[in-house]
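Q: Convert this sequence to structure tokens.
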Amino acid sequence: MPITTKRTLDEYILQHIDAEGDYLHALWRDTQLHLSYGQMTSGHMQGRVLKMLVEMVQPLKVLELGTFSGYSTLCMAEGLRKGAELHTFEIFDENEDFLKKWIGGSPLRDRIHLHIGDALQLVPQMGEQWDFAYIDADKREYVAYYEMLLPLMHPGGYIIADNTLWYGHVLEEARESDVQTRGVQTFNDLVASDPRVEKVILPLRDGLTIIRKKNICS
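A:
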């Protein structure tokens, strides 16, 4: 699809879905101004999808790997039912002040628990079972995140993985040095062949994979 056509379609979609709201828009602008790689933030369209997915699943325990600016965090928190909570992990401590400002300033702050550190080390120590997990962190570690998460998910729980089309590079033969592309490709192949889960890839933005742990899976 030509880039101009895709941009036109994206603009059309944004005009025909729920608004992101003033607070989220201000967060998006601040992300572009003050954080490196601001394009990594989820943004309006994907944020509304995440909110709706959480509303549909109605989880009590939500886990996010890769907070970045907190945009996706706040979108998922919008969809939480009463009594539910979201734990989000960000490995880069230089983002902590930014996150505390924006999460702490949101009326949704009481639903959110921010953790700074390596989720691969910290999440298993929590002893929690999760209903819904969102992966948007180091692409080199996607397989490790998946293998950590699946045993911790309740049967019927959902894992959502972002960037699973990786700018189209998943179609290419990755160079040995391109560890991020190889990480995403290996993850996609693993999930596709895993009989413990149901899965579908949505061509939304950079690819969003929805994974459901089967009820028969222990």
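Residues 3-213 form a domain with the Rossmann fold fold (CATH 3.40.50.150).
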